[in-house]
Specification:
The chain has 530 residues and is mainly alpha-helical. The chain has helices spanning 16-36, 66-74, 76-81, 84-101, 104-111, 118-131, 138-153, 158-170, 181-194, 209-235, 254-288, 308-313, 318-342, 348-359, 363-382, 384-397, 404-417, 424-440, 446-459, 470-479, 490-518, and strands at 40-47, 52-59.
Length: 530
């Protein structure tokens, strides 16, 4: 019998740049279709000054027309330049590149991190990534490049390090060990929404403190299990095909080899000692700049704010706005201190030249960021996310059940909305005036409802290209991708994170349900029920 030939479909591996271009086009086409059917929504917007609800109508804006295409062309430069991801990443990379150029990272990893168990390093990275949301999105721009360096220098797959840092920040966003920027942004809206039912209701800034501390620890432990059990084995060992070079062996006298090792050891120790001294001085300056009412102190505080938390995390806080620069400055100072002690740099010209060579590696990432910024800007302009969020708010407010089913509905719905509306503040502005009063009528506290936003927001945050910092994940995966002929696509990146997303989402749901059923305190004198 003649064997039947099996037809094999050729697989296409679209470069992420091409994917973002296609997504932009699809979004514009979708806006045209939805506008034809006059897709719109009405929601109640809360006036934070008068505490009154204002009816707001929002409709999908058609961008697949003459004016839409014209605006895409005319605003492309503005979309790119104003894309915060680009500026914060470049600032962070300057400092990281200096520290890497001088050899500080190599020495630190060789003498400190190499002594730590791999699982512990993964846990430390996840823990830092999870609590990094204390200061908005700093974790994406600092920890993703840093994790890649640490994993690679520790003879582990840097792709696993990149995924570890990204998933830690994205799927643990909003939980930390302290009260931070999330409270400064959300609490005023939660409190104003609660006052639609109780005009004297007060939501303290520490209202979620206990539950976010517990969640931070749990997510770090569960996340470490996922990374080590699923992600690392799937990625396998790292083979740097592009940078693989033949090593030339030199026949050197054993005594000379030993002498070289001793000199290198002495220089590294001296460099690390200098780096430690620089670190102590930098931390001292940093802490003093956060103390109010002392001579020349409070440099990083907004002294016009009424509370200390708002002085640190408010809209006009110098700490909030300048933290990325401060971290970059730290790595520059420490890198130079190490380089001078270890004699790995001789002058400023050499340092700047070598640092520039390191930064040259991100050229493809900048191209990717340009097209990602256009896609996100176009999607926001269509109002699709606002319409869907308003639908979600109306669905929750109209639900005819209460208790645990209502809690689960809010969690799942926020998780789904998050796929197209990744900014917590934007979602909460629309959802809170509907969700908070609805749950209060079901004896569920505003503080617990605010935690449900954190949980739902984090459950799916890393699974959407509409997250502004998703592009850093894709860019770094491809920078360290050993097979340049087969880029890591958006689909493959999502597939790598799917196990993490599923297990962490279940973890978030279990934490919320158990806390609700047991009635454990969310914070000082604050509970899931009223």
């Amino acid at each position: 019998m003649r064997e039947k030939k099996k037809l094999k479909l050729k697989k296409f591996h679209l470069h992420p740049v091409t994917t973002f271009i296609l997504l932009t086009g699809i979004t514009m086409l979708l806006s045209w279709i939805l506008s034809i059917f006059q897709v719109q929504a009405t929601y109640n917007q809360l006036n934070l000054t008068t505490y009154e609800l204002e009816k707001t109508l929002v409709a999908v804006e058609n961008l697949f027309n003459y004016n839409g295409i014209k605006s895409l062309i005319s605003e492309s430069a503005k979309n790119f330049v104003s894309f915060t991801t680009l500026s914060t990443l470049l600032i962070a990379l300057i400092g990281l590149s200096v520290a890497q150029t001088t050899g500080f990272f190599d020495a630190f990893i060789k003498r400190v991190l190499v002594k730590i168990n791999n699982q512990k390093i993964t846990w430390i990275l996840l823990f830092l990534a999870t609590i990094s949301s204390l200061i908005n999105e700093i974790g994406y721009v600092i920890l993703i490049p840093l994790a890649a360096i640490i994993f690679k220098e520790n003879n582990r797959n840097p792709l696993a390090g990149i995924i570890t840092a990204f998933t830690g920040v994205a799927f643990g966003y909003g939980v930390t060990l302290f009260v931070g920027s999330m409270e400064a942004n959300l609490v005023p809206i939660t409190e104003a929404s609660a006052r639609l039912i109780d005009s004297n209701y007060h939501v303290p800034l520490t209202s979620n403190l206990f539950i976010i501390i517990a969640t931070t620890i749990i997510l770090s432990i569960v996340g470490t299990f996922i990374i080590e059990k699923f992600v690392v084995p799937k990625l396998g060992r790292y083979k740097d095909i592009e940078n693989k070079t033949e090593e030339i062996e030199e026949i050197i006298d054993e005594e000379e080899i030993e002498q070289r090792k001793l000199e290198e050891d002495y220089r590294e120790k001296k460099g690390l000692r200098n780096a430690l001294i620089a670190t102590v001085f930098f931390i001292a300056f940093f802490l003093y700049a956060l103390l109010p009412n002392l001579p020349f102190s409070g440099m990083l505080l907004d002294m016009e704010a009424t509370t200390y938390l708002n002085q640190i995390f408010g809209e006009n806080s110098y700490f909030q706005d300048g933290f990325t620069f401060l971290m970059s400055l730290y790595f520059i100072i420490v890198g130079i201190a190490y380089g001078k002690g270890a004699k790995t740099i001789s002058n400023d010209k050499e340092l700047i030249h070598e640092t520039g060579k390191k930064l040259a590696e991100i050229g493809s990432l900048i191209i990717l960021i340009f097209f990602a910024s256009q896609f996100i800007a176009v999607f926001r302009k269509t109002n699709i996310a606002t319409v869907v969020t308003a639908w979600g708010a109306n669905l929750i407010s109209g639900a005819n059940f209460s208790g645990l089913p209502l809690v689960l509905l809010v969690l799942i719905l926020i998780g789904l909305i998050n796929l197209i509306a990744a900014t917590p503040l934007a979602k909460w502005t629309i959802l809170a005036p509907a969700v908070v009063p609805k749950l209060m009528q079901s004896n569920i506290s505003p503080e617990f409802t605010q935690f449900l936003l954190r949980a739902g927001d984090s459950m799916t945050k890393g699974l959407t290209p509409l997250l502004a910092y998703f592009v850093i994940l894709i860019g770094y995966l491809n920078m360290y991708n050993p097979n340049k002929k087969r880029p890591i696509t958006v689909g493959r990146a999502l597939k790598l994170m799917l196990p993490y997303c599923l297990i962490i989402s279940i973890t978030w749901i279990v934490i919320a349900v158990l806390w609700y059923l047991t009635g454990l305190p969310l914070g000082p004198n604050r509970f899931p029920t009223l």
